[in-house]
Amino acid sequence: MSNKQTEQELEHKVDEVEVEKSPSGLTIFWKEILKDKLAFISLMFLVLTSLGVFGISLILDQEEIIRVDLFALHEPPSIEFWLGTDYGGRDIFGQLIIGTRNSLAIGFLVTLLSGFIGIVFGVVSGYFGGHVDNVMMRILDFFMVLPNIMIIIVFVTIVPSYNVWSFSLVMTAFLWMGIARLIRSRALQEKELDYVQASRTLGSSHMKIIFTQVLPNITSLIVVTMTLNLAANIGIESGLSFLGFGFPESTPSLGTLLSYATNPTTLEHRWWIWVPAAVLILILMLAVRNVGEALKRAADARQRRA
Amino acid sequence: MWKFIVRRLIITMPQLILLSLIVFILASMMPGDALTGQIDPNISSEAIEEQREKLGWNNPWYVQYSDWVVGVAQGDFGQSYRFKMPVTDLIWDRMINTFWLSLISVFFIYALGIPMGIISGRWNDKLVDQIITGYTYLGFATPIFIFALVTLWVFGFHLGWFPTGGSVAPGLESGSMEYILSKIHHLLLPGLSIALIGLVGTVQYLRSEIVDTKQKDFIITARAKGAPEQRVYNRHIFRNSVLPIAAFFGYEITMLISGSIFVEQIYSYPGMGALFLESIVLRDYSVVTALVLLFGLAAILGALLSDIILSIVDPRIRIK
Amino acid sequence: MSKSLMGKYLFVLMLALFLVLAACGGDDEGAEDPSDDGSEGTEETEEQKEEEEEEAVDPEDQIYDIDDFSTAVSNDGDPIDGGSLNYGLVSDTVFEGTLNFNFYGGTPDFEILQWIDEALLSMDENYTYTQDGAATFEADQENNSITFTIRDDVQWHDGEELTAEDWVFSYEVIADPEYTGVRYGTAGFTLIEGIEQYREGETDSIPGIEIHDEKSFTINYERLTPSLLTGGVWTYALPKHIFGDIPVAEMEESDAVRQEPIGIGPFMVDSIVPGESVSLVKNENYWRGEPNLDEVTVRVINPSVVVQELETGGVDLVSSFPVDQYPENSQMENVEFLGQIDMAYTYIGFKLGDWDEEASKVNYMPDEMKMGDVELRRAMWYAVDNDTVGERFYNGLRWAGTTLIAPSHPDYHDDSIEVPTFEPEEAERILDEAGYEDVTGDGFRETPDGEELVINFASMSGGDVAEPIANYYVQSWQNVGLNVQLLDGRLHEFNSFYDRVGNGGNDDPDVDIYMGAWSVGSDVDPSGLYGSNAMFNFPRYESEENDRLLEEGISEEAFDVEYRQEVYSEWQEFMVEEIPVFPTLYRSELRPANLRVTNYNIEQGSGVYLHELGVTQEEPVVAE
């Protein structure tokens, strides 16, 4: 049930971002990605993997995958179990699919949620400036000081049960500051520009100015930052799960699969449990980064032209 | 300058107080306490309840908090129930360990990262640059915990070059040469694994900075004047590019601290990060609270340090 | 970008190669092990290996039997003069460093303490005090008193004589209201005459304790129970000449506990690296005789590196060995695996009531609880296959439990009692008969009243196979038509698990059944776990018969071992009928020892003491 919720939320959020984008920005991004083969392959890989894991996990019988089979413990890869089984006789391939889906879902959710909060916070603070900015920046400063991994760990021990959705909320609560800060400084610059001043004198409302003029102009910055944040968020999630403060085993993520490697027998003798997850994390991070870098170049190029 | 530092420090006070309050409330919401673990038929539950009462754990959180604040004001962060010793003494021991680990990591980050960045920037697009760029490319994508786990396994288990846990071999006289060498031996592997991932940022920054500077007018002028290539690099390019790196020192520390949680855990290195995780699991609240505060304080000081260094190395930036 | 592309591809390739190599490397090693067999090593181990080799099964499918393990090392060579030994304290946390029996809390500290201090009374294999220790005792049943006499040659590490006053001092400290530890509250203290007066400050010393001379004293109890002689008496002295001047509240943080701990044991503390290691040297004046070893180093090692440390000879002995790592390493050539039945059992508990805070006793109300029907509980016992769980997850090193007194107390464990075993048909039959039938047709049974029956199962996380085992039990119950669900759909971390199960008295009504484990004390008396006023009676079960049996087990008649055995047999049988909880697994503990170690026996009351422990060669035997 939570998954559906998640997906709906995802779609919803994606729509929102699309609306904000100016068409010219999108085309430039797209062109840049087409130009850069590596970025293109990476993007295709990301899209296909996401579609793949979300698609397959709809068909896959989750109950069946996390079902304990006493007579198939620690099976090495075979036709029946493509990537073998873990110490509960559970299929690793299935767990990898679901795990990737959960990790990606959290990555996307946290990125979008923290992006949303960060943008609103940053734009409001930067656009209005003055006292508003002052107060908001003090709040931001405070959050910046929080040792966020530790606070998230403390939080996770308090919340008795959490799903993809609530876990993302906890993470978001402590990870929105970076983007807010960035957006704010850009918004500060934007609002000094002539066109904003002009609209203001023409009597446009603040809302209108923010949505029709300030936001479209910082879209590229937003897209680039959020893409790079995606990689970081996937990393943080898997790190927390690795330490044992992420998801329970019944909700596998890439981090939980990796954490099995803390058992020396698994590390040495049962590579099929953790190596695929490790490689997948690596490739995902690289792919996201390739796309992000390409977008960044496109954004820079646009900036130069402008 | 001093005014600035003092003002910055004053601003941090309310931040720390708010942080302590939040941590305190969160801690009191955690299920169980340090005595919950005493589930042993040889221990009577009345005795445990009596201890709870005596330690004030049954008081509402605000009473506990005000008691705590009064203590902190006198430099007393309370007792660690688990270790039965003052939190300050306990953390002090661990802090020294974490300090050395951070120091050796920073050392490696700069000792390896700066040359790599310079080489990569000077000979950009040559093979050596491609190798370094390739490395940073991968390093960026590798989560520190995977890397630490693999290095521990390869160099600690398989090759047996390094110890696989602890901070010093037992039985050595504190302060003796052997003791120091053993300390360093225990630090090398965790320090290197933090550094090998941590240097990525430095290398990338330095490379792009040097590549940029190379095209700047004053360099071209210097070259046109016939200054030897080596001199151009040493006198003009490197100085301009390397100095800002120093400014990141403070932020680097903040990053190291969050990385230390993973590395200390994986290498069973008794530092603050490992202590934090243990204290969470065993509900040693006084330690958790003090550690979170300390990490927060370190982040504040790190940022402050960076700002100060930045203003020294780059006179254009004035601190207000 | 594209220029440095090649470099990037190169590195991706190298990384992939590295990972694959790493993985294969590990695998190869695993495969090599068996073929290494016939190589060196002492005769004894070769024999052992051959036995195992005959079966030639994949190590993971091998089933072991704890009875095949010896408790003593087979190396019977003469120990060399001196030598040093490394003891691995297996723990994933540091040790706390509260190095005094009167104050310690955690197991890691205990492992260090056993080298430097010892109980003044020894115990035999049934955990009953004997007269072989540093002190002897005489129980006077008529006057309800026990007189203790300390041997003449027992000294503290600093050369001071151990006196009766030191021992009595430990009673005075633990009973002191300012005392900061958790040792007070057991019968060994509360039964002492006049102890309450002392606690309330009316007297300066405990009225029930009379010191006769330097070496002997008598404790007068309100009544004697056999528990006193099976671990109830507090047998650790506290040196008054050191602690006498320290206020009780500050003792546990004093240097005498943390920096320079002292005891009467065979080894003395030389230096401590806080949390990590302790270096010990021999106590030449140890009362049983001068120890063989010159030095012992106790060092914390993480469970994940135990195998590595053993193979390289980094440690000779360890405090515990993770059973799940045994099959892969049973062939380790430089160590001998010792083993015995562990003093613990895992069990499934049924919540049958809650805790009455005011009366400080359980509030048994079977009619209001989902699990109140004993037939339902019995069916659930029949539905689970504990033997297979033990074989598959623990390679036979854990096995199906039968009664609530584990075989680690051989005199009291009654293995003749018939208990339910895995028979799903029987489970279904019982449920059908008791009226639990699926009337709605959703595949799950409803209560006899036709109401939906969802059973919430709380289980603890931690431990490698916690999750699959919990899920296995859930599946097993679902197979007989009972809708059992994991509480909140997940496992619970230790603290919150016990919080919700009822430690502290706030039982969570959402918990219907739970899986816990008890590590049992030296005293066989189970009333601390199942008595009607025991907080740890988490099922909150109570009955007159139960109270009567538990009471009789610690009555004066029970000083007669045979009588006590009968009582506890009856109790075990009664529990199998009533099923407030049922044991799932008994456990074994494995203790590998380097082949150079001699005079080592892990069995309780074996008569082999630590001062005899020795090594037969300077350097540890190392795996090839």
From TrEMBL, chain A:
Membrane topology, from the record: Multi-pass membrane protein
Annotated TM spans: 38-60, 104-127, 139-158, 164-183, 214-236, 271-288
Protein name: Peptide/nickel transport system permease protein
Domain of life: Bacteria
Signal peptide: none
Keyword Transmembrane listed: yes
CDD domains: TM_PBP2
InterPro entries named in the record: BP-dependent_transpt_permease (IPR050366), MetI-like (IPR000515), MetI-like_sf (IPR035906)
Domain ABC transmembrane type-1 residues, every copy: 100-292
Entry-linked Gene3D superfamilies: MetI-like
Family: Belongs to the binding-protein-dependent transport system permease family.
UniProtKB/TrEMBL annotation, chain B:
Stored InterPro entries: BPD_transp_1_N, MetI-like, MetI-like_sf
Keywords, sorted A to Z: Cell membrane, Membrane, Transmembrane, Transmembrane helix, Transport
Pfam families linked to this entry: BPD_transp_1 (PF00528), BPD_transp_1_N (PF19300)
Subcellular location, record wording: Cell membrane
CDD domains reported for this sequence: TM_PBP2
Transmembrane portions of the chain: 99-119, 131-155, 187-206, 241-267, 287-313
Ranges of residues in domain ABC transmembrane type-1: 95-306
Membrane topology per record: Multi-pass membrane protein
PANTHER family according to UniProt: DIPEPTIDE TRANSPORT SYSTEM PERMEASE PROTEIN DPPB-RELATED
NCBIfam families: Opp4B
Protein family membership: Belongs to the binding-protein-dependent transport system permease family.
Protein name according to UniProt: Peptide/nickel transport system permease protein
UniProtKB/TrEMBL annotation, chain C:
Keyword check for Signal: yes
Keywords: Signal, Transport
Secretion signal span: 1-22
InterPro entries xref list: Opp4A, Peptide/Ni-bd, SBP_5, SBP_5_dom
Top-rank taxon, per record: Bacteria
Region of interest: Disordered: 28-62
A family per Pfam: SBP_bac_5
Domain Solute-binding protein family, chain residue ranges per copy: 135-531
SUPFAM superfamilies: Periplasmic binding protein-like II
NCBIfam families the record matches: Opp4A
Similarity comment text for this entry: Belongs to the bacterial solute-binding protein 5 family.
Protein's UniProt name: Peptide/nickel transport system substrate-binding protein
Taxonomic placement: Bacteria, Bacillati, Bacillota, Bacilli, Bacillales
